[in-house]
Amino acid sequence: MRQRIDFVRLTVTAIVITVLCQLAGAFFALQHHRTVTARGEYDSLDERLVYMAISSFAWAVLTPVVFYIADVFPLRKPHRLRNTFFMTVVGAVIAGARAAVDGVLPIVIDNLPMLASDYQLSVIALFYPHFLFTVLVVIVANFLRLEREESARHHGEARLESELVEARLRQLRSDLHPHFLFNALNAVAALLHRDPATAKEMVVKLRELLRASLASEDAREVRLAEELEFIARYFDIQKMRFGEKLTTAIHVGDPQLRDAAIPPLLLQPLVENSIIHGIARRRDGGSVVVRVEAEKNGTGDWLCLQVRDNGPGCDPATVLARNSVGVPNAVARLASIYGEHQSLKYVRRGDAFIAEVRIPLRMVG
């Protein structure tokens, strides 16, 4: 299939070059005819068109050859001087050959007698425009090559940048898993002596939770429904630890939002932060609620995610500055995926301490 595509491309290119050369030949033939007849001299337009058609067709054949040679010997460092000299020689040879052929055309086509001296003068006169045309083709060939190389360089840089972003995301996810596992095992350890049966059940649920997190390890984004299912399982584990002290809820404003795209494990560190640093500090416990809504903005729609708790909270600015992994990790992943088109902030509204995430709303296909 690749060879067929190349053949079609080369055929189209050859046809385009031939047509352009023939049009240019017809233009110059007509121009020359009008100039000669304006001086009151005789000139056959038909003969002039035949001459230029033959000359133009010769250039249509030679142009791809000159392009190829110019690509093999580009006018750039480290061999710019050498290649310039070589291409000058090539141009002179091609121009000389073309001039010699064009000088013979009147003799061959019209059987016009011509002295050797007149033929020599004709070849010299024709040499210069053919040489200049060769130089023009070489310049165009080098310009197009530079364009291709610049385009390839930009594509390479874009691909490298994309690979670096993916590597950064993989690193962030790999940092998050040990952090999540460490905190989960601490919860198991806290129950081990007080309630061994519950601790055993928690280990089973933790195994399922880890299997779910590893299943999305290489995914850039997952369906919101998968993330919410993960959070529901995480809530179940934390309820085993805190018992009736912890109440939880998940509210989705529109069921269609469950098909929205979201980075995996985005909500887990926010929920964990609410439980560990919010509810755990209240003697009588509290609640953690996850809310999902769609919001309009100037250019599109946002997916708004909230994790609300009624714990004591703190200065919202200090949450992101904590020397921890979870929340800063979420901030870094959002920036890597969405650039400036995202936000994660903490706010206090009444008795609720809220983590708010906004990302572009996009449905998973």
Description:
The chain has 365 residues and is an alpha+beta fold. It folds into 2 domains: 155 residues, no CATH class; 166 residues, Heat Shock Protein 90 (2-Layer Sandwich), CATH 3.30.565.10. It contains 9 helices and 7 strands. Strands 2-4-5-7-6 form a 5-stranded mixed beta sheet. The protein has a two-stranded antiparallel sheet with strand order 1-3. Helix 2 runs antiparallel to helix 3, helix 3 packs across helix 4 and helix 5 runs antiparallel to helix 6. The longest helix has 77 residues.
Q: What is the compact description of this entry?
A:
The protein is of the alpha+beta class.
Distance between the termini: 29 Å
Q: What is the name of the CATH superfamily of the largest domain?
A: Histidine kinase-like ATPase, C-terminal domain
Annotated CATH topology of the largest domain: Heat Shock Protein 90
Please identify the top-level CATH class of the largest domain: Alpha Beta
What general outline do the C-alpha atoms trace? rod-shaped
